[in-house]
Design a protein that fits this description.
It is a single chain. By secondary structure, this protein is α/β, with parallel strands linked by helices. The protein contains eight helices and seven strands. It has a seven-stranded mixed β-sheet, with helices on one face. The chain is globular and about 40 Å long. The mean pLDDT is 91.
Length: 196
């Protein structure tokens, strides 16, 4: 099911972030859509406050009706907008500004905006298909050079089907790399950004 797969992915991501799942954290799900990832976050980080934000009124209406334990906000995440709060973790899975164009200035503006939402010791987690010239991947070196006060950590996320059967992080990543090589599938990468 959608929920099971999302929880497995969130558990994998939580293994990459040095935040305790039992702590009371403030977590933002950027581009939350219908709320399934926000709900998975609430299952993994049970003591935390989850906020999902999306531009789609219909998606937010559905999310609010389906997942009443989560704060959903209908708003655009735009660099020109004010921050909507401060968060320990910001999760951006296939977030449009990072996935469909290679505009360096836009990537800088969105990164700066999202990083301004982070609390001290917070983490920005970006997940997306990676090997595309129309994504943040194209500009990663330049962004790393422009945001020198931040540490960039890049790894890859195994496919949900691999995560369903393999719980060990390293083994799951190795199996996934092997299968993607054979099947010629694009990897999903995870970029974690934190202050140095």
């Amino acid at each position: 099911s959608q929920w099971f797969v999302s929880v497995k992915k969130i558990k994998f991501l939580s293994s990459l972030i040095d935040k305790k799942k039992t702590d009371c954290l403030d977590i933002l799900d950027v581009g939350c859509g219908l709320g399934f990832t926000s709900e998975a976050l609430s299952k993994v980080y049970q003591s935390s406050r989850i906020t999902g934000v999306d531009l789609s009124k219909d998606a937010i209406k559905y999310a609010k009706k389906s997942f009443q334990n989560i704060n959903f906000v209908c708003n655009a995440i735009e660099p020109s907008n004010e921050t909507i709060g401060n968060f320990d973790i910001i999760l951006a899975i296939e977030f449009y500004p990072f996935t469909r164009h290679g505009n360096l200035q836009a990537h800088k503006n969105y990164l700066k905006h999202l990083l301004n939402h982070l609390k001290k010791n917070g983490r920005l987690v970006i997940c997306q298909k990676w090997d595309s010239s129309l994504s943040i991947a194209k500009n990663l070196t330049e962004l790393n050079n422009n945001f020198r006060e931040y540490k960039f950590f890049l790894t890859h996320m195994p496919h949900s089907k691999v995560l369903r059967f393999v719980s060990n992080k390293s083994i799951a990543q190795t199996i996934d790399k092997f299968l993607r090589l054979i099947l010629k599938k694009q990897p999903t990468k995870v970029l974690i950004i934190r202050k140095k």
